[in-house]
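Quick one: structure for this chain?
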Amino acid sequence: MQVIIASNNQGKIREYKDIFAPLGFEVFSQGEKSIELDVEETGRTFEENAVLKAQAIYDLTHSCVISDDSGLEVEALNGEPGIYSARYKGLQTEHERRKAILDGLKGASYRKARFICLICFIDEAGQQHLFKGVWPGTIAYEEEGSNGFGYDPIFISEDSQGRTTASMPISFKEEHSHRAKAVKKLMEYLENKAESL
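Got it. Here's what it folds into:
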């Protein structure tokens, strides 16, 4: 089965290919299907944004589509950056956005945070299916590690023995992350659907 990922984020595409390829799925990014579409994320929740992106690609292709909206929520920052994780405070680089989080928590001992991933899968018939993954953890006091992308150098998940995600092997994130948890739910759905056919 062919699946189009409604993204051109290379880190995200690589993660999806690593997850889906062994299961026999052909995974394509928007770019690989020559889809030049930049959907404005006008939703107020991760769910709304995931649906917006997936539906726009499905309307063009009528192929299976996977879209996700994901982000970091820091409790001491009132849940920021949340749905604005990729464009937090209008900053241009991932490093600047990470620094804004660290600056916002300067002197704070309460650093609880979580990554959230909401996947929207639209099947060939156009039906929407939503799957959510949550990865609890804390924010580090400084950046550490060079694996991964985004906020990985400042996020310490509850299952990483005190190390940031970026200082763990890529395979660790692919197995434990918010996206991995949401994908696992999606795969369970697809497997159950296949068995019922």
